[in-house]
Structures
1.
Amino acid sequence: MILHVNPASGVPLYLQIQSQVKQAVSAGALKPGDALPSVRKLAADLRINPNTVARAYLDLDRDGVLRSVPGGGTFVADGQPGLLKAERLRRLRPHARQVAVEGTQLRLTADEILKLVQEELDSLGEPR
Amino acid sequence: MNAAEGASFNDQAIWTEGLKKSYKGLHAVNGLDLRVPRGAVYGFLGRNGAGKTTTIRTLLGLARATAGAARVLGMDIDRHRLAILERTAFVGEHKILYDNFTALDMVRFTSAFYPQWSHEMVERCARQLEVPMRQRFAKLSKGNRAKVWLLLALAQNAELLILDEPTTGLDPVANDAFLKLLVEDHAAHSRTVFFSSHNLAEIEHVADWVGILDRGRMLLEARLEDIREHFRLVIAAGRGLPAAVSEHIAAVAQSGEFTRYVVTRDAEAFASRLRQQGAAVTEVSPLSLREVFLELLRKEQEESHVPVEMLA
């Protein structure tokens, strides 16, 4: 797996690592059960602080992307088929933000906005 | 993880408060508050003459503080000088050793003083940094002298590693090998590393904390990931805009209609407030460490600046 970080980009390094791992998993380049380099190895390869790599792995573990076995390494988790939940939420967020912003500008209350979204969901006939 | 906020000096590998060191009326270190969390890799930055070397010399008891308090590994620098030196490895600005000694001689000589000495580290350093172990020191290039010093420091296996411009003179390949070695070592032992450097790119890679020193005082001390995540350059055009440094504004520079701000938190909210005052906000963008450094120190350039470090 090839990860690359740019320390001068203004994006926190742990987020750069996270998003690259997530993309690799989403794209199928990393498959469930694949091993990731150890914190030490990845930190040394990228010449970055080990705490940064540890934080990225911790968050990925929490998001269900990776699975850490105490003393036994870090692996890609056996996730749902398709995109990971966190990734799907990430993609929807800009739309949700737009609804929130425009709804507020139209002076609708939070309840009214939520009700509208609920009506749209209901009209799809999908279970919640 | 490290939390400098509200932590006592026992949680800090290095802690100073109001530290001062004056030479003949020149204030080389002028009320310095330094907080280096245990286990951090801390980049100590500043222009030439900002007081970096004097600070380091004072911490190690090589110079006596004029005023203020300082603790290294929880120990008062005046009362526990020897204990501090025993538990701290140090690479100084001037990489001088005995001319007739080889690196191997120095290893034999130095290792006797340190119970924690790591021969494995000596071998690893020698291999990865390509240190000429059998050449007399007098014959070594500047870069190779720096390598010998780094080897001797890393092999001490100390709790705290203080490095004053450790990579000066190293070529890019050796520099890269050194950074790899430092990161591997830090991952394995999580010792605290405190190092000064002019190479902002290398600090930006390996450090997790930075402190920017100017005229003997701390201008900014922050987690590097906080700088990446929260620090923003905000440029606005308009009249009567705020022009003072405040809690979340680290630097302000005005020229004509335009005002540049380094905002340390909630930059979007700050930009909204400027817009409400009728300003046109032309930019809100992240800053590299180099840009933060330049923005903070640029406005200071016009005023006089005495390089007191030379007097140390």
Note: Chain A touches chain B through 21 residues (CB under 8 Å).
2.
Amino acid sequence: MDRASLFGELRVIVGDQYVLVEKEDVIVYEQDGSIMQVLPEVVVLPGSTEQVAGVVRAARRANVPIVPRGSGTGLAGGAVPAEGGVVISLARMNRILELDLRDRIAVVEPGVINQDVTKAVAAGGFFFAPDPSSQAACSIGGNIANNSGGPHTLAYGVTTNHVLGVEVVLDDGRVVWLGGRAPDPPGYDLCGAFVGSEGTVGIVTKAVLRLMRSRESVRTLLAIFDRMDAATQTVVDITGAGIVPAALEMMDRLTIEAVETGAPVGYPRDADAVLLVELEGVRESTERGARVVQEICTRRGARGVRVAQDDAERLRLWKGRKGAFGALGALAPNYYVQDGVVPRSRLPEIMRQIADISARYHLRIANVFHAGDGNLHPNILFDIRIPGELDKVIAAGEDILRACVAAGGSITGEHGIGLEKKAYIGLLFSDADLDAMAKVRKVFDPDGRFNPAKMFPTPITCAEMRRAPAKIPAGLWI
Amino acid sequence: MTRAALVSRLQRIVGPAYVLTRPEDVVVYEQDAFLVARALPDIVVLPGSTAEVAGVLRLVHEAGVPLVARGAGTGLNGGSIPIAGGVMLVLTRMNRIVELDPRNRLAVVEPGAINVDVTAAAAQHGLFYAPDPGSQTVSTIGGNVGNNAGGPHCLSYGVTGNHVLAMEVVLASGDVTWVGSRSADLPGYDLCGVVVGSEGTLGVVTAIVVRLLRKSEAVRTLLAAFETIDDASHTVSEVIAAGIVPAAMEMMDGVVMAAVEAAIHAGYPQDAGAALLIEVEGHPESLPRQMKRIEEICRAHAPRMLRTAASEQERLLLWKGRKEGAGALGRLAPSYYLHDGVVPRAKLPDVMRKVVDVGKAYGLSIGNLFHAGDGNLHPIILFNPREPGIMDKVVRAGEEILRACVEAGGTITGEHGVGIEKREYMRWMFSDADLMAMQRVKRSFDPDGIMNPGKLLPVGERPDVTVRPAMAAGMWT
């Protein structure tokens, strides 16, 4: 099938106004939250499961790739159409179909914005737990594809812990349900395999989400440290004491400098690290938890510990953390946010290694991250206009990931693999492991039509990609 | 390959002492805790290492005979019954706790390690392994993984799948692979999640990395007895609706309570309609107010008795009644069929009424002893197997209960798994397209269909991968 007849078929399926082919229309879909871009040939915006199935069947007949896309806030290039084909934007399918507070579930379409789920149930005393920083913009479909986390993942788990079932369109246009409304159904846990599959298995068109009851009490503390080492030891001690805070976030000296330069909230500029600790639960237990956390911080030599006395102060303490990424712009024109994981007990040593890598490459690295679950976000600051700088940044990022894996961790905590890290997945898995995954993929997508060139090192590696300008235009890494 | 050649090559792999072929040796492996079916294995092999398991699988693959993995044989769905014959792989010799890492709160164990031994080993560090099936003093971690086992405390801690970080798996080809990792939520497809609950149909697990939890500082346990099951069911719904998640919330009906009290003397009222055993855990300061709230909710339903355990000894006694409840049922009937269904908690009162109706309609006595807090029912159909035609009635009554669970938006099993018992009922929950998706995954791991054939997925007119589809005659005893 030639392009013109494919476009014609797509228009019949979804309607003329929902098929975009003009450059000025498709250019807004060339990039996600990463630093890679490829212009799509055609963008389709279906409005229903049937339309998604129709588009998938048409793409199959035309033998072109399919790339699903939510809000485009992904950080690993997962929504970039690396091999061309049809980009399916699920943004129009943004309805909350059902709220069942007695059974604590919500049934939503994939384009629903993360925060809108919580907004819809907050009055009833419930919330949807996964809270990625992009939650005001990112979609549930994208959260599912990347198995997104967030600051409160420490206590509540990542997206996969909150998705009970998904309706999925498979490669031949068939519609199946994986999982369902009840937790832990019999059979293979294909819902679990689907969450985090980054669009390589099928397209989610409905999701059953677990809702959680709002906690009656929240306590937030900010602890200031003169040495990073003391802060990381404090994290190890808090979790070691059997306390699981709802969130346990860390910011280093460079991040504090950025926040205080960009949008000051009153962090001491000469501190080496601050810890933001939030406890949720029954009132009596958060009060005692807060006392224990204060004691541990003091014992580890914290310069001071502030406990928020009311909601307004609590929000002020969080403001610096939430605005930290934006504030990095005050320090450098570009930054590359890395995402790695280490076992909590290895935090002190990995932070020392990141400092070493920073010194070795002469690159400034700002750390703002989910310390409680060992999920690092080193932000490598740079200026893209300096020749050769980007290569250094990528090499430093790779060194950090290798250090994480050597410490027994992982190359991504919540951002996913996408295009960005597929060359590194071999650090984590043996050939036999990857082969098992390839077999599963083949079962669902024998032609490799769904989001090709993502997640797995084959058929082309990252290095080959950068040498293949026919598919990836020059200036991919901007 | 002749049987003799297969036996001698198996002996070379694991040693002659660990290959059983004589009828008097293999007969103990013909059954699990699914008391109504059995089938003799042809050959039983007891490997001692991953390398030996891989060797056995390569050989079995070459010979093209079915392979059934077995732990302690406490499974309730017939999953370890070798209905297609072949080689049974018994993993009880591989029972070591290989590594205990309290700092990272994990343990690496072999599949034959006994559930309660993991907690016993971790206790010195103030840690425990959360999934606590009723069989925990005997059942193996490998079997728990195969069936995604639950237990009373799964209400707050989740089932086995939530506590397995990674596994070493030997595939049908004999290849050894790792799924998952020591750090949680790895990228790539979550194959560790797929293998947990796959009931031995995808591969043989030879090492398991489990998550350990920190013991709560304080625990309070309350026994609340009610006049009717309805009162108890409503109490469960309201406790959960009040935003309280107890560590456990178990229900026992009057039938079970009378049998338990006669056997164990835990102090349960003998003539109440139902009792709830409710346990809360956490900081010592946080418990009194939660207990007060729970008691208030109980009081709204006219309880016969509210008793809070005053000592650890009393607490254990209250639990003893629950944990040994199934055993006490022997006082009431010569045999029983223990069912396992799930309903949304809000539907608990409706479905419990339905269970009572089914019992009346079939003239069968049904006891209930179950995880009320997560809507996981265990109706226990009591019967005398010597009564002609009774088995048919028992099976049909069970089917009707499970159908009611599915119609209420629940499932056909909460923690016992599917096995041979419920494989045809899978069609009630999944469409043909859903089941085909599972079949395709099965085939990608086990293209020749030699891993535990005839289990988990329906057989019959639709495509399947089983070797010998029919159940042997006389299996339903």
Note: Chain B touches chain A through 75 residues (CB under 8 Å).
